[in-house]
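Support request from a user on the community tier.

User writes: "When I paste my structure tokens into the form, the page sometimes reloads and wipes my input. The last time it worked, I copied everything first. Here is what I submitted, just in case something in the input itself triggers the reload:"
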């Protein structure tokens, strides 16, 4: 398990095959992913892990497993989707329902900003969330993202609040 960043309560680690059971608790859970185009099937989850692992190897930045230091368990994922280049990346975060409401998303998202800052090539971080997902929108505002406006997203088939963070 390669640790990329450490906070007071969390480790952010490169995703690998050992995280498969844990990611089913969030990416494979319909209730958790209701605002994000639905849960991923058990067949797809190993490929998602592999894509993020390769992304870290290629770009030096990716989506990471979020591990609670106290319990030693992976409770979620946070980090960046790299679409065309590392100049503009998308922040995402998803957590198992048991870990909601404990400040983990805010702590890990703030750590992600430091990862991006330390990377050196990132200029803009984008983020969005379903209008109904008030918790995620609050996290973005807490860590300093700027609301840009509403934007249509084909994957969720809805207009969502769109945010940016610029270095």
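"...and here is what came back when it finally went through:"
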């Amino acid at each position: 398990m390669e640790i990329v960043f450490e906070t007071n309560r969390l480790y952010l680690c490169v995703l690998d095959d050992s995280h498969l059971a844990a990611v089913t608790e969030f990416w494979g859970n319909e209730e958790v992913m209701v605002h994000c185009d639905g849960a991923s099937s058990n067949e797809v989850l190993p490929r998602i892990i592999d894509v993020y692992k390769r992304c870290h190897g290629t770009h030096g930045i990716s989506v990471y497993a979020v591990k609670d230091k106290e319990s030693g368990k992976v409770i979620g994922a946070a980090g960046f989707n790299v679409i065309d280049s590392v100049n503009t990346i998308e922040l995402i975060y998803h957590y198992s329902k048991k870990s909601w409401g404990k400040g983990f998303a805010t702590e890990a998202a703030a750590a992600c900003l430091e990862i991006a800052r330390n990377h050196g090539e990132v200029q803009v971080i984008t983020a969005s969330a379903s209008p109904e997902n008030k918790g995620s929108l609050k996290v973005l505002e807490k860590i300093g993202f700027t609301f840009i406006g509403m934007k249509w997203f084909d994957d969720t088939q809805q207009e969502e609040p769109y945010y940016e963070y610029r270095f």
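Agent notes: The reload is a front-end session timeout and is unrelated to the input. The radius of gyration is 15 Å. DSSP finds four helices and eight strands in the chain. Escalated to web team.
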